[in-house]
C-alpha cells in the first residue's frame, strides 16, 4: 500500500465544519475550517440541532474550497476519511453522509476515524512520533492519558471521572459570566493575575492516572458565593489563576509520572485545551527540567480540524483497514477498539 496517498478528510463532530486534503499522512495540502463560535455564543454553549444545521449548510462549499486550495480534483483522491465518533450524533451524521456519498460516487475506500486519534496524530503533521509515547488529551469532552506502545495502538491509562477539563473551564467561565467559549478568557486572566486564590487539587488514589474536576468547579463556586455573602468584591483574576493553577498542576504532574512509569520516549499534548497558554508553558518548562521530549501541535491544529482526521486515517490506509458503507455514527466510539489490527 503506497504511503503517498491523497486522503480527503471530513470533520463535523461538534461545531467546526472542516475538510482537508492530506498527502501521505503527514503533508497538509489544504485544511479548511469553518467555526460556529459566533452562532453559539449567544446561547452560552453549543446547541446540537443548530450545529447540525450549520454543517449541512456549509459542508459542500467547504469541500470545494479544500480541493481548490489543494490543487487536486476528486479523481486524484485515494480515500475518503470522516470522523465516526466521539461527538454529537447529529453533527457526526452530516459528515458521515457526505463522506459515504463521495465514497460511493467515486468508488473510493471509506475510513471511519476516531476523533481523539485525530487529536493525537495531529502531532505527526509537525514532527515524527517515537514509540512508545504517551498522549495527554485535554479537550472539551475528554481528559485522558493514552499510551501508544506502537503506531496506532492505543491504551487508556486514565480518564476523567466527571467533567472533562474543557467542560470545567466552560462551566467556571459561565459562572464568572464570561462569554462562550470561556477557556481563553480564564487563561488570559490567570496569566495576568498578580495574586492567587489557592484551590484544591484532586489527586485521587496514589497510583491513579484518573482525573476529577467537579470538586474544583464546586470550590470556585463556593469562593464566589462566599464573596457575595460577605459583600466583598469578586477577585476574578485571583480566582482564575487559582483555578488554572490547580488544573495545570494535576494534568502536568500525572502526565510526567506516567511518562516515567511507562518508559515513554515522548509526551504529546493534544486536544482543544492544548491551546491554553498556561498549560503549554507549564508543561514545556516541566518537561525541559525532567529531560522529557515534548510535542505540542501549533494552535491551528489543536482545535477540531480535518487535517488531524486525515493523519489518523493514514494509519488505517497503510494497513488496508477500510470501513463498510453501513458505518454508523458512534458518539461513544472506543479509542482502544479503534486501534489498528496489525
Topology:
Elements: E1 6-11, E2 16-23, E3 27-35, H1 37-41, H2 48-70, E4 79-85, H3 89-106, E5 110-114, H4 115-121, E6 133-138, E7 143-148, E8 155-159, H5 165-175, H6 183-192, H7 214-230, H8 236-262, E9 266-270, H9 277-290, E10 294-295, H10 306-317, H11 335-338
Parallel strand pairs: 1-4, 4-5, 6-9, 9-10
Antiparallel strand pairs: 1-2, 2-3, 6-7, 7-8
Helix pairs in contact: 2-3, 4-10, 5-7, 6-8, 7-8, 8-9
Can you put this structure into words, describing what you see?
It is built from eleven helices and ten strands. The mean pLDDT is 94. It has a five-stranded mixed sheet, with helices on both faces. It has a five-stranded mixed sheet with strand order 8-7-6-9-10. The longest helix has 27 residues, at 236-262. With 342 residues, the protein is an alpha/beta fold.
Amino acid at each position: 500500500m503506497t504511503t503517498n496517498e491523497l486522503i480527503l478528510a471530513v470533520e463535523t463532530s461538534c461545531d467546526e465544519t472542516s475538510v482537508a486534503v492530506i498527502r501521505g499522512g503527514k503533508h497538509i495540502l489544504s485544511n479548511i475550517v469553518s467555526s460556529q463560535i459566533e452562532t453559539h455564543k449567544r446561547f452560552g454553549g453549543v446547541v446540537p440541532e443548530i450545529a447540525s444545521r450549520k454543517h449541512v449548510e456549509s459542508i459542500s462549499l467547504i469541500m470545494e474550497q479544500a480541493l481548490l486550495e489543494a490543487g487536486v480534483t476528486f479523481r486524484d483522491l485515494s480515500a475518503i476519511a470522516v470522523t465516526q465518533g466521539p461527538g454529537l450524533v447529529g453533527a457526526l451524521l452530516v459528515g458521515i453522509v457526505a463522506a459515504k456519498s463521495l465514497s460511493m460516487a467515486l468508488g473510493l475506500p471509506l475510513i471511519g476515524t476516531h476523533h481523539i486519534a485525530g487529536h493525537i496524530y495531529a502531532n505527526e503533521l509537525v514532527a515524527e512520533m517515537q514509540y512508545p509515547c504517551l498522549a495527554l488529551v485535554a479537550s472539551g469532552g475528554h481528559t485522558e492519558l493514552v499510551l501508544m506502545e506502537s503506531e496506532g495502538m492505543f491504551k487508556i491509562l486514565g480518564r476523567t471521572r466527571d467533567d472533562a477539563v474543557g467542560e470545567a473551564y466552560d462551566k467556571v467561565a459561565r459562572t464568572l459570566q464570561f462569554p462562550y467559549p470561556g477557556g481563553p478568557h480564564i487563561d488570559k486572566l490567570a496569566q495576568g493575575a498578580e495574586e492567587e486564590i489557592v484551590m484544591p487539587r484532586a489527586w485521587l488514589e496514589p497510583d491513579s492516572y484518573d482525573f476529577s474536576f467537579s470538586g474544583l468547579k464546586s470550590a470556585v463556586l463556593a469562593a464566589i458565593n462566599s464573596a457575595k455573602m460577605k459583600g466583598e468584591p469578586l477577585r476574578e483574576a485571583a480566582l482564575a489563576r487559582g483555578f488554572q493553577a490547580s488544573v495545570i498542576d494535576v494534568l502536568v504532574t500525572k502526565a510526567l509520572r506516567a511518562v516515567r512509569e511507562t518508559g515513554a520516549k515522548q509526551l504529546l499534548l493534544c486536544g482543544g485545551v492544548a491551546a491554553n497558554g498556561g498549560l503549554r508553558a507549564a508543561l514545556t518548562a516541566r518537561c525541559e527540567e525532567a529531560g522529557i521530549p515534548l510535542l505540542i501541535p501549533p494552535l491551528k491544529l489543536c482545535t477540531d480540524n480535518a487535517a488531524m482526521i486525515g493523519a489518523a486515517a493514514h494509519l488505517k490506509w497503510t494497513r488496508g483497514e477500510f470501513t463498510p458503507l453501513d458505518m454508523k455514527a458512534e458518539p461513544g466510539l472506543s479509542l482502544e477498539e479503534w486501534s489498528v489490527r496489525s
